[in-house]
Amino acid sequence: MSEHNVPPDQAQIKLKAQTIENTLAEFGLPVKVIGFRVGPTITQYALEPGFIVKTASDGTSIKQKVRVSQISALSRDLTLALKASRLRIETPVPGRNFVGVEVPNNENNVVRMRPILDSTEFRTMSSPLALALGRNVSGEVVVADLEKMPHLLIAGTTNSGKSVCITAITTCLVMNNSPYDLKLVMLDPKMVELVRFNGLPHLLGKVEIEVERMQAVLRWALAEMDARYRLLADAKARNIETYNHKMVQKNKPKMTRIVILIDELADLMMSAPDQTEHSLIRLAQMARATGMHLVVATQRPSTDIVTGLIKANFPARISFAVASSIDSRVILDNTGAESLLGKGDMLYLDPAKSGLQRVQGILVGDSEIEKVLNHWQRINQANNPEEAPWEGIVDEIVEAEGDQLVEQAIGVVKAAGKASVSLLQRRLRIGYPRAARLIDELEEMGVVGPSMGSGRDREVLVDGDDGDEREFQED
């Protein structure tokens, strides 16, 4: 789809510039609007601070420059005067000698994928992991390189554009890489956003929606990273580029790049915080050389989800609209994200540049995603989808958790002196089917007796003093 740009209303822009000057002058701060930049959703007005004339005790006049902090302190008064929904003041604009006042436009322009992919900025990027992010406050194209980042952390509240951003990143990657050069691993606890990519030839397995299977994916990723490092060591290559160059010369298969996309980090951190944090940190610290990259998103940028160690290993970050300045500081180490407009309005922290860039993200429609899927499925229709490489690890985790639940169930029935499905449901906080299977397992092991009829508790055949002796397992 193409972009339909609404031309800026010059009269409205001049009126707002005059309003900014007059409002600040009423508070005793002389400033001058020396220019403006029109973006897809906001217009940034460039303010040059003037001088406040004060009279000294001896009657002489003293000129005192208007401080930047004085202007930013009046952000709410400017919002009121401009009748704006939200307003952000950039003090100062990085690399410029003016203060930026960002005011929402009356009509917004939608940023589309195709014009950015056709732009000179994107075409001049030689990286296979080039990302089209959107357009800045001047309407200029903003692109990034996931290979140099090398990992990306995204935060934002519901309906702020976070999942749309991940969708755009995914679409951009698969449009520029074949399934032989790039593989994707997708974890989607919300079960609605990324499942649309099921059937994509780039996808390893399918989009995982269960937290238990996601833990298996992270364990597999660590094992894959270690295996790749062994291959690099055998080939005497320092990174994936050197390795693939040597393999091409030897006419051997290349190492594919892997991008792991996690749409909601909070669900993983709540279920297994220590294991999740350890896996993410180790991957973030070491996986770059092996061609593995992380794109992690969360709608809860609190310190228990985005820990200090996770943040330290994700230097490239994107924040959409968040609830408070505290959340903004957690994700960006700076305020400002609480003043964003939502619906794709973001602040991008590029580790290679100073300061934050305000960007309007790309909107990718369902029809565009479907066209991309159909294109790759048509090209790769002869290749059957492969089984997920972490299936064996999933079975190990399920078996380990099953053994742990059996141990806990034995402890519960021994302590209570009775056994029933409802008792295990309450104490172990599990569903009826799992509790019923546990009772059957305990009966086979000789821990509890047979069913005594409907509504009656089973007899416990093991005394509470038996400790951890498990002779009944020997059959």
Largest sheet: 9 strands, mixed
Look at the helices and sheets and give the structural class.
alpha/beta
CA radius of gyration is 29 Å
Gap between N and C termini, in Å? 67 Å
The tally of structural domains comes to: 3
- Provide the helix percentage: 25-40%
CATH superfamily of the largest domain, called what?
A: P-loop containing nucleotide triphosphate hydrolases
How many strands? 15
What's the arrangement of strands in the largest beta sheet?
Answer: 8-7-15-14-13-9-12-11-10
Overall mean pLDDT: 87
So what's the overall shape?
A: globular
Number of helices: 16
CATH topology of the largest domain: Rossmann fold
CATH architecture name of the largest domain: 3-Layer(aba) Sandwich
Strand content: 15-25%
Which parts are unreliable, with pLDDT below 50 for 5 consecutive residues or more? 467-475
CATH class of the largest domain: Alpha Beta
Question: Can you tell me about this structure?
Answer:
- Strand 1 and strand 2 form a beta hairpin.
- This protein is α/β, with parallel strands linked by helices and 475 residues long.
- The protein is globular and about 100 Å long.
- A nine-stranded mixed β-sheet has the order 8-7-15-14-13-9-12-11-10. It has a four-stranded antiparallel β-sheet with strand order 1-2-6-5. It has a two-stranded antiparallel sheet with strand order 3-4.
- The longest helix has 26 residues, at 391-416.
- Helix 1 crosses helix 3 (75-82) and helix 14 packs across helix 15 (421-428).
- The chain folds into three domains: 10-104, Threonyl-tRNA Synthetase, Chain A, domain 2 (2-Layer Sandwich), CATH 3.30.980.40; 113-389, 3-Layer(aba) Sandwich (Rossmann fold), CATH 3.40.50; 395-473, Arc Repressor Mutant, subunit A (Orthogonal Bundle).
- It has helices at 10-26, 68-72, 75-82, 113-117, 120-123, 162-175, 211-235, 240-249, 265-271, 273-286, 308-312, 325-332, 366-379, 391-416, 421-428, 432-444; strands spanning 31-38, 42-49, 51-55, 61-65, 88-90, 99-104, 130-136, 141-145, 152-155, 182-187, 257-262, 292-298, 316-319, 345-349, 356-361.
